[in-house]
TrEMBL record:
This is Cytochrome c-type biogenesis protein CcsB. It holds the Pfam family Cytochrom_C_asm. Keywords: Membrane, Transmembrane, Transmembrane helix. Coiled coil: none annotated. It comes from the Bacteria. One of its GO terms (molecular function) is heme binding. One of its GO terms (biological process) is cytochrome complex assembly. Residues 71-280 form the Cytochrome c assembly protein domain.
Amino acid sequence: MQNISLIENAFLFAGAAFYLAAAVLGMVRLYKEVNMPAGLLAVLIAFGSVMLAGVLFARGFEKGQVPLVDTFEFVLALTVVFSLAEFFTPHNLRKGWFEAVLSLLLFALTVTGFSLAGPVGTLDPAVKTPWVLVHGISMLVAAAAIFFSAAMAYLLLVGRSKLKSKNPLHVIGKMPSIEKLAKLNMLGLRLCTAAMTFGIVSGIGMALSQAEAIDMTAGDWLVDGKIILIMLVWVLLIIILLMNVFAGISSRAIAYVTIGAFLLALLAIVGVAVLGGGAHDFLAYAGSFRTEGGVLCG
């Protein structure tokens, strides 16, 4: 990538290579039932995350602030947070499918990071408020939670499919029970809803407190692609939780909706940035400002 330094490129390539190796080995172990050294995938995932964390640390040191002010850095931070699932998820969940799926997602996010890479920027002084910190952390937690739920939902659907197949023994010992996965899915959805609510409220607080400096109207926010998608995800989560309480919706249906919500969230985080558009950008490069769509950015 021409927009980032050679060292950052090297670290990103190394991180992607470690994640890809973990994904390939995970699939080989799963489908070929090959015995591998204990903890090998965890080591590969850890090395990949260290590479990405190195990029974030270098950019944060250069700008003198938390490196979460653009989509590229947010995706890298999100990838590192997702990788923690390898170390904080119970051991019985990390057998078979989980590590293979996790490694593939980490690799995909790292590759996506390449398409979003840009020069080091700093946050526009107009939006340097406590609201920004709360907003960023809340949305990061929400993203990690919806990923966790999507992973549990995927494992649940795979487990149900295998149990109905002619060889249900293929799934025994490789993943937890369907009931356990359903409970973990709901746990992640509740956490995501709570964190996303904080993120939305803090985002509104930032917009109201800095309305004149940002120079954006309510209409500008309402037509922003990222905000529209995030609000759709939030509404979808509320509907899932309400239907689970009052309508007794099946775990299978919840799993499908969870994966749909995750894809919408991924589109909001990554897709909008890749496709272009959106006013959700408050960066300043090299101390100079330009205006795009009424937003001060670098």
